[in-house]
Fold this sequence. Notes:
By secondary structure, the protein is α+β, with helices and mostly antiparallel strands. The protein has 5 helices and 4 strands.
Amino acid sequence: LKPDALFNYSLSKPSGTQTVSFNGEDLLVPRMDYSRAERMLKKIKKWNDENPGNIIKVRGHVLLWHSQTPEWFFHEDYDKSKPYVDKDTMNKRLEWYICTVLTHFTGEDSEWKGMFYGWDVVNEAISDATCTYRSDKENPNESLSEDRHGSNSSWWHVYESNEFIINAFKYAN
């Protein structure tokens, strides 16, 4: 359920884009791929249907994570060779992503409605090394142009503050 998995592990570029109507405007977004998650959920759903007195509930992990969000997600046209988008554009992407994932898995018409007991909204926003917000300069030996980060945060690079964390919780709510 991590962003890279829901983007089909397309780390160097999205596996396609589409234009959707979101909050009254057209928004270009990367294509989502729920197939891996749904394979696991189908097994859990089958178990739950066969064992109604001993059901398994699922914890969604995770909506926002610096190391599991492909670098292209932060750039114009979802192309990491282009400049970073601005905060307003990133907020639209973040809200779209969170709303799309939560609606797919927990919405009124979702096949998976009722299976989730909760969601991790943000993971590892605080650095183990510094005990402060994880920044875009956490590890000076790691380039932000890498497809996926071990330590550095492109979320911080775009926002230059903890605003993305606050917004993630607002959108998830």
